[in-house]
Amino acid sequence: MTLAAATVLNLLTFAPPWMVALPGLRFRSAFVLTQVSTALSIVVPAGAAVGIAGAYGMLRRWGFPTRGIARAVTVASLWNQFANLSYPIIAVFLLTASGGDSPVLATAAFVGVAVLGVAVAALAAVLASDRTASEIGDQTARAVNWVLDRFGRGPVLWAGMSFERFRRDAVDLLRRRWHLLTISTYAGTLTVFLLLLVSLRACGVPGSEVSVVEAFAAWSLARILGSFPITPGGIGVVELGLTGALVGFGGNNVGVVAAVLVYRFLTMVPTVGVGLLAAMTLRRR
After folding, report:
1. Distance of CA 56 to CAs 59, 73, 164, 234, 278, Å?
2. Which domain holds residue 222?
3. How confident is residue 258, by pLDDT bands cut at 50, 70 and 90?
4. What mean pLDDT is predicted for residues 71-82?
5. Other CB atoms within 10 A of residue 97 CB
6. Which 3 state secondary structure label does DSSP give 75?
7. pLDDT tens digits, residue range 223-248?
8. Strands in the chain per DSSP E
């Protein structure tokens, strides 16, 4: 019963960040959008890009303006990545405070700090002024065009002016809603950790073997591993990393393996099922 409740809670918390990032998007539509796009990202190679493309197409069909969609996709994706990069940093702090240690996690936290610092600095630079945004946009467009030219593809249709427009839209949204976006993003991702914790306890891995802090540390490391597009949905990579980390913290092999499999099943299969069902419903409409 607890596992079912945690699974439902996890599914319901997908929608709020998108509702914040795209004013006017209602919960029902946001729920369908996130389930379909997440299902695509799990089952299709290069799933993240396909999921974003699917979300963009659905929002266009529902009549949302292109600029609003681009802003929502960018901001929601950035905030989600910021959260993922911050978790190893938080986990190292909590482990240190509780007297624990993990060299692998410390390395991940170091990388997270570096990447997060660069990402935040780049976002701050884009949002600083129209002139800076335009210069960054022009330089990015030139770099992308150079790569596309090597593959015999045409140039992109955006440049500095597009970054200027994005800056104005993003500044307006973030000024009013950055706190709601931050809270909803962290709440949504932490329900995934709650599902792991419930799975561990349900499968016979007590707190005396793997504490809440240690489980959080293993989960935050698995989030980083899952962000690399090695396999669709991080299948295999996440399970391996999560199992190794939990056993390393002292969890019994049988209980940890069972818990990880239950956790991965409940975070993927319900979403894929609901997402595909929603996609078929949309096609009929």
Report:
1. 5, 8, 21, 23, 16
2. 2-284
3. very high
4. 85
5. 9
6. helix
7. 877 777 667 667 778 888 889 889 88
8. none
Of the given ranges (2-11, 106-115, 130-139, 192-201), which has the lowest mean pLDDT? 106-115
pLDDT tens for each residue of 161-200: 777 777 777 777 888 888 999 999 999 999 999 999 999 9
Q: CA 285 to CA 283: how far, in whole Å? A: 5
pTM of the model: 0.81
**84: helix, strand or coil:** helix
- Our count of domains for the chain comes to 1
Look at the block and give the residue holding tokens 């955006």.
158
Find tokens 């976006």 and name the residue: 181
Closest CA to 234 of 199, 205, 260: 260
Q: Which two tokens stand for residue 221?
A: 């490391």
Tokens at 183, concatenated: 């809270």
Q: 3-state secondary structure string, 227-267?
A: CCCCCHHHCCHHHHHHHHHHHHCCCCHHHHHHHHHHHHHHH
What is d(CA 143, CA 275) in angstroms, rounded to the nearest whole number? Answer: 36
Extended beta strands in 53-92, E state: none
Q: CA-to-CA distance for 158 and 138, rounded, in angstroms?
A: 9
